[in-house]
Specification:
The protein has 352 residues and is of the alpha/beta class. Helices cover 48% and strands 13% of the residues. The chain has a single domain, classed as Metal-dependent hydrolases (TIM Barrel, Alpha-Beta Barrel), CATH 3.20.20.140. The structure holds zinc ion.
């Protein structure tokens, strides 16, 4: 029917025009297929092709297979120039999708082959953010330094040191730390000391937790740090694995959740969109922010994630607007940045 055919692009336009905040985006997982092509062209000897770094529509992988895709992407981003290019491309793509404020996260990585150090890695990302700003890309970008669980406590300590250094020198760009990587690697207690130190220095904490089942003790250990935001929290509330005391804790302390629908479906930690825990947290009006996680690997966009959430859970346009507007409350930047963003939103608000 004609009506339906016309309806689709109009709907999509609402979500791409909607001003949005992206708070859970891993730099390497966010690299688009276009940028991957550019990187492959620079390194033809690696014989990597596009399907090895992106999961097409309707396809799924296990969480382990997804983690392997990141290792392939790392082979493609080995020099400060590569990191600068991907940072700028990713920022531009988020801006083109209507994202007005973005917190990018990435683990500092050294590469012997190119002489890139963890420090020059961080500096390349900061340079990409700076150049995007100078080129007037309409988006405010900050950086969270990631701790990859596979690196263990020593790499975690190093990441915290770097975060502290750049927290002081990078003019409000480095705002906090993320704990991520293979959720089965290491134990939460290995990371407590560095994370506590970071907190004492004034850095914010966004922690991936309860991403896989049977991690109740570990989840409790991480929650006891009072993280500023939770990544995924998939099994906090699930009927088999969930625990009412964990949910109560998160509710009592009003800890916002970063929720990434397509990521959880494609990596098979959630069986289907309608069973996504967004439904639970939204129904109890708990602070939740829609995010992409890895827009490149999972072949998505933030506007698409909003649309999926809205269509799956029957949200009106006005409810979608509120969801995006309220996400400003959970950013790690200062109150004056929040005020600026609220102003921007009110200028862009449509009549519903
Ligand atoms: Zn993540």
């Amino acid at each position: 029917m004609m009506m339906e055919a016309e309806e689709q692009p109009r709907k999509t336009a609402f979500y791409s025009k909607l001003p949005k905040v992206e708070l859970h985006a891993h730099l390497n997982g966010s690299i688009s297929s276009n940028t991957i092509k550019k990187l492959i062209a620079k390194k033809p000897d690696l014989k990597i092709h596009g399907q090895m770094t992106m999961i097409d529509k309707g396809k799924k992988r296990t969480l382990e297979e997804c983690l392997h895709m990141f290792q392939i992407i790392h082979l493609l981003t080995t020099s400060p120039e590569d990191v600068l290019m991907v940072t700028k491309d990713v920022i531009k793509e988020f801006a083109d999708d209507g994202v007005k404020y973005l917190e990018l996260r990435s683990t500092p990585r050294g590469e012997n082959t190119t002489g890139m150090t963890k420090k020059t890695y961080v500096e390349s990302i900061l340079e990409g953010i700076k150049q995007s700003k100078e080129e007037n890309v309409d988006i405010d970008v900050r950086y969270l330094i990631s701790i990859d669980r596979r690196g263990g406590p020593s790499a975690a300590k190093e990441a915290v040191k770097l975060a502290e250094e750049f927290f002081l020198s990078a003019e409000d760009t480095v705002l906090g730390l993320d704990l991520s990587g293979d959720p089965a690697a290491g134990q939460a207690k290995d990371f407590l000391e560095p994370l506590l130190e970071a907190k004492k220095s004034g850095l914010k904490l966004a922690l991936h937790l309860s991403e896989i089942p049977n991690r109740k003790t570990e989840t409790q250990v991480l929650l006891n740090l009072f993280p500023d935001r939770i990544g995924h929290g998939t099994f906090l509330s699930s009927s088999e694995e969930g625990s009412s005391d964990l949910v109560d804790f998160v509710r009592q302390h009003q800890i916002p959740l970063e929720l990434c629908l397509t990521s959880n479906i494609k990596s098979q930690t959630v069986p289907s969109y309608d069973q996504h825990h967004f439904g639970f947290w939204y129904s109890i009006a708990h602070p939740a922010v829609i995010c992409t996680d890895d827009k490149g690997v999972f072949a998505t966009r933030l506007s698409q994630e909003y649309q999926l959430a809205a269509e799956t859970f029957h949200l009106t346009q006005s409810q979608v607007w509120d969801l995006s507007y309220e996400s400003i409350n959970y950013i790690f930047a200062s109150d004056s940045t929040k005020a600026d963003l609220r102003k921007k939103w009110s200028h862009l608000k449509p009549h519903f």
